[in-house]
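Pipeline run #58 for the internal structure catalog. This entry was flagged by the ingest filter as a single-chain record with no existing model, so it goes straight to prediction. Upstream metadata was stripped on purpose; only the residue string is passed forward. Reviewer on rotation: M.T. Logging verbosity set to normal.
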Amino acid sequence: MSYDTQLITLIEYLQKERPEKHFPSLSDLSILEKWEVFRGLCNERKPEPVTDVFLEIQNDFLTKWNREETLITMNDMTAYTPHLYLWQGDITHLKVDGIVNAANSTLLGCTRANHDCIDNIIHTKAGVQLRLTCHQLMTEQGRSEPIGKAKITPAFNLPPTFVIHTVGPFIDARGVTPLREKLLRDAYYACLQVADEHGLSSIAFPCISTGEFQFPNKQAAEIALETVKKYIEKTSSQLKIVFNVFKDEDKHIYESLLTEGV
């Protein structure tokens, strides 16, 4: 089955679950446009089982799709210390042991079709199994995920082996408070603990809470670096830790802080 045929087959399966919705003719769409249709359908889909045939085709397609871009290893990144690395780009391109997902309290991924948040991208590229696995975890837990905790799942079709999910604090009109600072520290610390408990050798962090959750970028970076350094000092962890940034603003902030040794 060709690449294009696989994607069409997946889309048609998902469309049949939405008989009330009108979709454009797939024959008129480019491969990238088909990808966006597939992505949107996955984003909105409830955590319900799929057939083994769907999973087989999806897994093969996503594995190839995710590896079309050059995969980034630790050797490709800028090392500031034996433990601390910086890299700018899409976190789903990293071939590390674990990447951190800045999740929401449902832990089910972003449900806004084609939204460009990290939660959306990770769940889309991992495949429907990630939402199903998180749904099982949340069902067993019986309540929303608390801020500042962390859970680990397989990464399924992504290049890394694991995804560590954490919910950071949201900044509202009251601004940053000591409690919200503590919760952001807790989120970073919990992810590091989970990584060590599961024997990971490398972990990549996004800029937790700075996007949709509106935590000030520089302050969040300072908290991230401080927490990571204290964790290494306290535990003698051998983890290699990547600060993965997407925006130039965050790259400049981390470069400055890492160079200054904050």
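catalog note: The CA atoms of residues 119 and 130 lie 11 Å apart.
catalog note: Residues 178-197 form the longest helix (20 residues).
status: ready for reviewer M.T.
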